[in-house]
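Protocol step 4 of 6: structure prediction from sequence.
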Amino acid sequence: MLQSLRVCSRQTASRAFSRQAGAAASIEPTAPVRVRFAPSPTGMLHLGGLRTALFNYLLARRYGGEFILRIEDTDQARLVPGAAEGIVQMLEWAGLNFDEGPGKGPDKYFQSQRSDIYRKHAQELLDRGAAYRCFCSTSRLEALRTEQTAQGRAPAYDRHCAHLSSRQIDEKLRAGERHTVRMRAPSAEDSDSGRFYDIVHRAMDFRGPAGFDDAVLLKSDGQPTYHLANVVDDHLMRITHVLRGEEWLMSTPKHRALFTAFGWQAPQYAHLPLLMNPDGSKLSKRNDDGPVQRYIDDGYLPESLVNYTALLGWHPETPQELFTLRQLEQSFSLAGLSRSKSVVSRERLDWLNRQHLRAALADPDKSAGLIQQARAEVAAASGLETASVRPETVATALRLAGDRLTFTKDLYNAVPFMFGDPALDTTAAEQALILVPHEFHIPILDALEHALASEVSESWIGFAKSVAAAAQVPTKHVMMMLRFALTGERFGPKIPELLDALPVDSIKRRIRSAKAEIESR
């Protein structure tokens, strides 16, 4: 852990660093990139993880590179069964197809399958003197941490084992003493690891008077820690850009120091700000709006969630808000990444879902699947047999619901009158009926029955005006009586659209039912 933190502006950085920071004017890649999404399968995919995956994917597509999925499962104790498979499935659901990853590509993409590689590289650091074996017991380390905390110091390893002689190390190894391998962190004076340019946060200086801790690279069971595996894999997989959450910003000096110790070129870093709840707290997997699966279960389209997620920390160059994935691939830029934290809001997501749902229903390649999905949802909500819910009726109902429909699963509740005659003895029906003077009820319904006895040859607006003239009432009362009879509700679709959507036989039957209901009172 760093002993102190100091974020410097480019004006106060060194001349060399200023040249590096000056790269802000040209942060967009000029050559194909290789990026990776490297989740830990300790739970299902979180909205923040989806955003990290999306931004990496978009960078690869925008600049002609490769998007790699790497599963960082070295922490075997915290693995959740099925989590890795779930991550793959959710990326596929979102349309973020990786170029290399589990089951696809020339490499091994689960870190648990690469242990030999990490041990080999840890040995290389030992041979270079850039790492050392630590034989300290857990109890000693805990006592050290307690003492340092009591003294008001940040816990850090005291390099008790850093100066063991070769003979001492050999004796301990022959005795079978458990040990870890620690990096030999460079001092603040000898290293520029803590001073770097971050694409999002710009010029950073994390150097402190005590440098940073000698992080464990290999645990006592021979398994690598995140720091070692992450750096080794990023180098061997030729990663050019690392886009990840800002919780890893403090670890970047360690990672850069490891790159230097190996003699490798470090990738460019972009640390994405946290996602926040509306109350200002950090969004986490435990929040209702955290897990991606929750959004899927709630009925959001992948196009909508991807569009929404892209706008959490990225600003397009135009006021455009509605994007397809293809449009995002063409528009994404590193310069558009924001340093500000983003607040997760369902209101904005709901609006996007309504827009994408409308676009999908107008697309023949997508509408058929949505109609079948809505058909099953209507059957479940209404208690009807699926076979009795006609696809044509569902398609008409979806069109009629229009922008008022956020999810297909809400179709039945939005327009129940499309799937059966409405109940006219409800509070909702009464609220429509009371808007028409009582003495006009039967005359209007009689005029409607008479007018519908012959084929309607004029527009529905003209039809309503003709009925109003025959009944000697205002046209608005005819419209409301139609709404009462046809829907049993005060509000809903426009009457001409409703009349177009319902079969004439159904309209006639509902007019007769409305007349019978009123006469029975």
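Step 5 (inspection) to follow. The two ends are 79 Å apart (CA to CA).
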